[in-house]
Amino acid sequence: MHFIKFAALGLCSILSVSSTLIRSCTEPNTVALTFDDGPFQYTTELLDYLKEAGIHATFFINGNNYWPELSTDPEKQAILKRVAEEGHQIASHTWNHEIPEQNGVIDKQSVLESLSLIEDLVYKNTGKYPTYFRAPKGEIDEATVMLFEEFNYKVIQWDTDTNDWNRVVNGVKHKDHNARIKAAKEFLTNEYYKKKENYLVLMHDVQPHTVKEIVPYIINNGIFQGYNFVTVAECLGDPTGGWSTIGGNALSILNGGAPPNNNVVQNNYNADVDTIDYSYSNTDFQENRSITTNLNNEVMNLKSDGFMTKTVNFYVIATIILSALYMLL
After folding, report:
1. Which of 116, 231, 233, 287 could cross-link 238 (Cys pair, CB 3.0–4.6 Å)?
2. Is 79 in a helix, a strand, or coil?
3. Measuring CA to CA, how many Å separate 126 from each of 10, 90, 163, 217, 296?
4. Predicted confidence band at 309 (pLDDT cuts at 50, 70, 90)?
5. What pLDDT is stored for residue 264 in this prediction?
6. Where does the pLDDT of residue 327 fall: very low under 50, low under 70, confident under 90, or very high at 90 and above?
């Protein structure tokens, strides 16, 4: 009896400290194009290309980066409204393209404030809050991933990096864009020939050559032909679309509450998951958040090995069984 209790507590402890850095899609035959660091002056042109091609993408935006005036300029903010209206996903990339620190240590309060600024900006222009996050330059450790998961954000990386930002190509630094364009085109073509099950592609809409050369190359040359171009949320099978309509995660915490239940699915959409009840009220969720969030993450983990996680399927199943035994003994 004591052994079972010990094992149950031990496995529950393993689950409680695990983190999930999402590096790949889980839905087969999908390509998720993602664009970091914007919006910027080239984003409108990019949206035109995507609209004409019928492609949906995900934009990891900053509030104060290439366009410091974004937060005060309604004309520039209109781009965010267009992004959402045309079926794209908006996600957070921090306000100032940095995860705030104090004396080399992540500043939790400043992180919340940074996230809340993005949430507020996006909500004012789209009526929805973003729930996905990508770290600037992808630089994030496990402890920081866990912090963002505490804020009920899904932390996204990539598995296909075009290096469209890097002037150094094959060890040589170039002054113009030509070498980067050529390298990116060759890389994407080679990746396509691998015929992987899915792709999560990193690009930057603040780079003119990405918008004017690389994206048109993908569209006009049939790169990823036969795949479905989707948002990151769609490529993960997330029925929320990466949005919350019931509150901002960071904003809710700063206002003294818990992050809203972003896993609530409207219209009785069960996303082919029979083991999770999405009918919690917001009040119920305040009491059950940790259980519901962990279970939902584990169900997504069971769908594919595209995640980098410490939790394995055996521990998920064993923990559920042993936890039930522990409650009975």
Report:
1. 233
2. helix
3. 44, 10, 30, 30, 26
4. very low
5. 65
6. low
- Contact between 300 and 240 (Cβ < 8 Å): no
What is the SS3 assignment for 179? Answer: helix
Domain residues of the chain, as ranges?
Answer: 1-18+310-329, 20-297
Amino acid at 192: Y
Tokens of residue 73, six digits? 């300029």
Fold of 20-297: TIM Barrel (3.20.20)
The catalytically annotated residue of 164, 204, 205, 238 is 204
Phi-psi region of 203 (alpha: psi -120 to 50; beta: other; left: phi over 0): beta
Q: CB within 8 A of 196, min separation 6: which ones?
A: none
Return the C-alpha torsion angle 281, 297, 13, 153, nearest 10: -80
pTM for the predicted model, two decimal places: 0.78
Catalytic site includes residue 36 = yes
What is the amino acid identity at position 256?
A: G
DSSP conformation class of 138: G
How far is residue 215's CA from residue 47's CA, in Å, rounded to a whole number? 11
120 among known catalytic residues? no
Residue found by looking up tokens 């996903």 in the block: 89
Task: For residue 15, count other CB atoms closer than 10 A to its CB.
Answer: 18
- As given in the structure block, the two tokens for residue 297 are 């993450």
Token digits of residue 29: 């035959």
Q: Structure tokens of 134?
A: 């990508």
For 285-327, the DSSP string reads HHHHHHHHHHHHHHHHHHH-S-EEES--HHHHHHHHHHHHHHH
Catalytic one of 36, 37, 164, 238: 36
CA distances from 73 to 69, 70, 84, 88, 135 (A): 6, 5, 18, 21, 25
For 31, the 3-state DSSP assignment is: strand
Please provide the average confidence, as pLDDT, over all residues in the chain.
Answer: 82
- The H or E element containing residue 33 is strand 30-36
Q: With contact defined as beta carbons under 8 Å apart, do 262 and 239 qualify?
A: no
pLDDT tens string 205-260? 999 999 999 999 999 999 999 999 999 999 999 999 999 999 999 999 999 999 99
